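Q: I have 330 residues here and want to know how they pack in 3D. Can you give me a structure?
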Amino acid sequence: MRGLNEIENILDEGIEGRLLKKIRKEISSFDILKKLNIDGTYLLKDTYDNLSIDHPEIKDKAEKIKNILGEFYIKLKEPSKYFAVIQVDGDNIGEEIGNLTSIDEHRAFSNKILNFSQEVLNIEDKFLSKVIYFGGDEGVIFAPLRDLLNIIEFIHDLFFNIVSSNGKPTLSFGISIAHYSHALQKIIEESRESLKRAKKIDGKYSLGFSLLKRSGETVEVAIKYKFDHIYTIDFMKKIKALYEKDEISKRWWKDLYDDRLSFIGRDQELFKDIFISEVKRYFLRRVDKRINPKPILKDIENFIRVIPIYNGFDIFMGIMEIIEFIYREE
């Protein structure tokens, strides 16, 4: 916790002078946050509750700020207390360079990598994010959960539009999701470990997710970015859209998890058929009866068909939990 004098200065000058006065103006986007050079925790009411406990003498100021932040939350959604660290790294770049046969080819490939890394920096203009560093084919980005899937997709598409030709080289991602109070070094280390798990998948071009819950539980998933014509991020966005439109209960996949013993351990040849049948049954129990469920059920079935059979249930459940967590942002 900062020293009391510094806290009071932030309350009187930093927050009062730069944030709260601007909050009282008409705000229509998160652009205001990009212009304010303040610690993001000072946009959370929890911060002032903790300050009031540690320093009762500033309780009135803290309450005043919490009330004004309430005005801010009405105009814009309350900031999430969770965020993501994204590690990005190209796959088999050395092998690709080794296949080049002339100085001109080397120069052209180097320019592609340079252009890619420079374009990634523009991500801060498109999303409320922060590029910590990006050089060549690798980098680290901090991202809010609400834009996480779009940011991953944006970087992926940039790479394949600028660098990759005929599908090579590819790109892999390691993503850790954690509460803002979690030790930052631990979150960064976890994103590296997630990337390592992604890189262990045959052929790479993969995603590694690690969700660090405040309970101490960690949800880990490593999965291919693309299976034939199915893109994992696109599939995740489709499920998330169901929650955003309130077209299905977020409980549906948990029902499936609770009943897992009824089909886990079945003959592998029959497992996926049984699994898909159960997924459809639980999905239809919870989906809004006013929508046509056939398109998304087909997407779910296709996704289950392509994920590995030996740990397909765990992968599916992990992806479902991460999607729901990203949607809830808590």
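Q: Anything worth noting?
A: The chain is about 55% helix and 15% strand. The first strand starts at residue 82 and ends at 91.
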